Every structure is written in structure tokens, then in C-alpha cells.
Fold this protein.
Amino acid sequence: MASDNRIELLSQTTNHFNRYILQADKKAAIVISGHLAFIGLLINSTLWSERVCILYGVIGLSLLSIGSGIYTVFPRFVDHNRENANLGNLNWRVASQGDYAESVLDEDIERGVESLAASNEALASVLRRKYRWLRVSLVASGGTILIACLSLV
């Protein structure tokens, strides 16, 4: 009974982390799209003909935001799976092999709990990195908007 509660908690945590990872990716995609549209608008605008330095600064911050947004979207799962067997059957390399179903059914319940816990640690690490780079992207976005607004005053 106690192992069922642990499995349920670990499964819910995995789902929770996966939802947050998906949300970070969606936010980064919105930032990237917005900045690409903003750069297109700036390049085609005639308001910036006298303010070339400010234009380059705004475009530079936009490119920083786009770059950190792109870096946010890429999964950066630290793959210690070859050396670290903690993930067990949750390792995607193991899951892609033909005997995955047999291996899951034969696995000891305690080993499964350890695999789920190790998977959650790996997801938390990815989540922490994604939101760190998303924060950089959003700060650069705020700087871009602030400089653009102040330059038009």
C-alpha cells in the first residue's frame, strides 16, 4: 500500500513537471514570434532613420531574447543514462529497445519507484534550466520594449 502511494505521488510529480516544461516551451515560442515580428516592424519603419544606434540596441536585445528563447526550447536532459542506471526502464534508450514491455513487467516495484524518483530529478533539472533561460529571454524582452518606448518619447 505504501509503495502505491509513492508511485502515485511520483507519477503526479512527473506529470506536473512535464506540464511546466511544456508551458516554458510555449512561452519561449511566443517570445520568439513576438520578437521576430517586432524586428520586422523595426526594419520596415521610417521612425528610426535618425536613431540608428538605438535601433541597433533594440535589435540586439531582441536577438538576445530570441536566442535565449531558442535555447529554452531545446531539451537539455543531462544524459548520464549510460553510466547511471537509476532511470532503469524510464531511460528512453532502454524504452526504444524491443524488450521494453517485458522488462517493465519483470521489474521489481521498488526498482520502479527508484526509476520514477530518478526521472523526476532529471525533469526538475531540465525545468530549472528552461526557466532560467526563459527568465533571460523575458528580461531582454522587457529591455527591448523599455528602450523602444523611451526612444520614441
Remarks:
- The chain has one domain: 2-151.
- DSSP finds five helices and no strands in the chain.
